[in-house]
Design a protein that fits this description.
- This protein is mainly α.
- The protein has seven helices and two strands.
- It has one domain: dinb family like domain (Four Helix Bundle (Hemerythrin (Met), subunit A), Up-down Bundle), CATH 1.20.120.450.
- A two-stranded antiparallel ribbon has the order 1-2.
- The protein is globular.
């Protein structure tokens, strides 16, 4: 049996989004324990020209919902970028996970050599074949923003480790 596009996309994105939600839980617990305003974490960034934690989560979820929807040839849900709390970011993640669960894997697997046109900033568009779009655009960018969100919280002192980033991966220990 061949490894399908839906197998390469849906579980990977869902597991990582759930892990990102767990990372945010640890961030909230850290802020509460240290008696700091959680907005300090939400507005933190690794470098002056990088996105804040809030924006990293927004972009990761946009890549997930838009990527999966484009693979399936359907319209993604629109989500405003107006979150100001960790709970609101977690709700955004939950909304995207719920959407991904509604996508029929057959729609993704039937994409074949179809080309996808997608926005690249406000004035440009990109075009790629479906498999290239998943492997060379969606997943690398999605993981980049999930990693950046993790790294921002880790940099702020939140106790996180690789298991927090990986989430509930289907691993069998022998």
């Amino acid at each position: 049996m061949a490894f399908s596009m839906s197998q390469a996309s849906i579980p990977a994105v869902e597991i990582s989004l759930n892990a990102l939600s767990g990372v945010l839980d640890k961030g909230a617990a850290f802020a509460a324990a240290k008696k700091i305003d959680a907005s300090v974490l939400l507005n933190s960034r690794l470098a002056p020209d990088m996105f804040t934690l809030t924006r990293q989560v927004q972009v990761a979820t946009d890549l997930a919902k838009n990527g999966i929807a484009r693979l399936a040839g359907i319209e993604p849900p629109r989500i405003e970028d107006n979150e100001t709390t960790i709970d609101q970011l977690k709700a955004r993640i939950a909304r995207v996970v719920a959407f991904i669960k509604t996508v029929d894997p057959k729609q993704i697997d039937g994409a074949g050599d179809r080309a996808i046109t997608f926005p690249l900033g406000p004035n440009n568009k990109g075009e790629m074949k479906v498999d290239d779009y998943l492997n060379h655009f969606v997943l690398p960018n999605f993981y980049f923003h999930c990693t950046a969100a993790y790294a921002i919280l880790r940099h702020c002192g939140v106790e996180l480790g690789k298991p927090d980033y990986l989430g509930a991966i289907p691993l069998k220990m022998t």
